[in-house]
Amino acid sequence: xxxxxxxxGANTGNSLRAAIALEExxxxxxxxxxxxxxxxxxGSTYLALNPAGKVPTLVDHGTxxxxxxNQSNAIIQYADSIAPGKLAPAHPGPARTRVIDRYFFFVTDxxxxxxxxxxxHQAGQDKAAAxxxxxxxxxxxxxxxxxxxxxxxxxxxxxxxISAFTIxxxxxxxxxxxxxxxxxxxFESIEARPAVQRGLxxxxxx
Length: 206
Known about the structure:
By secondary structure, this protein is of the alpha+beta class. 50% of the residues lie in helices and 8% in strands. It has helices spanning 13-25, 44-47, 72-82, 94-122, 126-142, 159-170, 181-191, 194-200, and strands at 5-9, 30-33, 57-60, 67-69. α1 packs parallel to α3 (72-82) and α1 packs antiparallel against α6.
């Protein structure tokens, strides 16, 4: 292992958010792909790291004992803490508060409902899931109003753009991009970022 940090994940929105955050923060890590189809996340080795059997999981071997983080949003916060200024303004103040506010808008008002809709679909509750999906689309459409200075929380890329981008990617075929010129421009600019591309491809073999 060349890097002290390992990121276990798969091609899921939660895993990709974590990988993009590490890439954008310039934090060296080793991507460890978990084959969900082969049920590797249910194996004893992985369950020892994440008893819930979910992805992603970050392991920082630079601490004693090794630090294990099982939540994608906590991984993003950890990346911000060890690379100040890369994912949000380093110092407390209005600019940092705005980033955190927008970041949690996408986490709580967009991503969390989309997860609920996913599980409803799995349970065969398609009508209920469709109602929530429409709410997610409405919130993504509303987020275009955030883009007054180029990014979701101001003039600089931040963790708010990471949380927004991965959920917008999941719903990209259901958004009316022709009516969302600013959101479309933003999406294309985020997708083109080299660090974002590296994060998107971190777990590509599965």
